[in-house]
Design a protein that fits this description.
The chain is α+β, with helices and mostly antiparallel strands. It has helices at 14-20, 29-37, 45-61, 67-74, 80-91, 107-110; strands at 3-6, 9-12, 65-66, 95-97, 102-105. The strands form two sheets. It has a three-stranded antiparallel beta sheet. Helix 3 crosses helix 4 (67-74) and helix 3 (45-61) crosses helix 5 (80-91). The longest helix has 17 residues, at 45-61. The mean pLDDT is 92.
Amino acid sequence: NALESFPGVWIITPAGRDKLGSFKPLPTGADLLAHLLSESSRLSDMERKFLGAICEHKHRTDSAIAKHAILEVTGYAAGGAPSRAFARLIALNYVKKDGPGWLAPAEELTS
């Protein structure tokens, strides 16, 4: 097996590391956020705009932001595509739910 699973954590095994070969790890902190917001990231334009708005709000106010406020700031209307973008950012652990309808950036992006 290439990965081992523990509650909330995936760890690569030695066999998995051998299969993977050499790689460049992702940056951390502010550098990771800059990478995610760049066009070279694998996030969609909508996801990048949402993530940027969430992190900017956290930086300015030190609080979570409501989804409707993110839509307003980024110029998107509520619907299926924005809902999928929010869900993907949560699934990727770049943002976390902070109450019903509220989102905050992952700690790793604001430290």
